[in-house]
Design a protein that fits this description.
Layout lengths: L1 E5 L6 H12 L3 E3 H9 L3 H8 L1 H13 L6 E4 L10 H8 L1 E6 L2 H9 L13 H19 L4 E4 L4 H13 L2
Parallel strand pairs: 1-3, 1-4, 2-3, 4-5
Helix pairs in contact: 1-8, 3-4, 6-7
């Protein structure tokens, strides 16, 4: 079983992904971590040094060449929204959208702004405005995920809901 987690930055893909991989006894991967290792730099530095289009190209290369099966994979927040990657994810495994409100996303992102290049140096108001715009822009992509789960903060419940939905397919 190959599982791709998609959703906005701060929606819990990494945290839920690790927990889900433990429960299902599957290896866990994070596309941002893989790209960071391949490039020998952090995601914020890759954005700073080469720009977002370069990073999106690296995401595309990674997903188009993805060969691993039976794993849980957390994707970058924008990954399914570029270069037809959502369709590729759907063809390679189960895609799960972790949904979170703009208010909760802004709280999470503001707690670690330097780790998220699209939110670096933004005020709280600018962060909320950016999140709301991104939610509108990305919704059509995320909605293509056959499984959708609200991550309201109770992580164990979210993982249980995902497992139930996966096994009811």
């Amino acid at each position: 079983m190959t599982i791709f987690l998609v959703g906005m930055p701060g929606c819990g893909k990494s945290t839920i992904g690790k927990m889900l991989s433990e429960k299902l006894d599957l290896p866990y991967f994070d596309t941002d971590e893989i790209i960071s290792r391949m490039e020998g730099d952090t995601i914020p530095k890759i954005f700073e040094n080469f720009g977002e289009p370069y990073f999106r190209l690296k995401e595309e290369e990674l997903i188009k060449n993805w060969k691993l099966h039976n794993a849980v994979i957390s994707t970058g927040g924008g990954l399914p929204c570029y270069n037809n990657l959502m369709q590729i994810l759907l063809s390679k495994g189960h895609v799960i959208w972790l949904k979170v409100s703009a208010e909760i996303l802004s709280e999470r992102i503001m707690s670690e702004p330097n780790q998220r290049p699209l939110f670096a140096d933004k005020t709280k108001q600018e962060t909320i405005k950016t999140i709301k715009k991104m939610l509108v822009d990305r919704k059509d992509f995320y909605q293509q995920a056959p499984i959708r789960v609200l991550n309201d903060g109770n992580l164990e419940d979210v993982v249980k809901k995902i497992i139930v939905k996966l096994y009811s397919l």
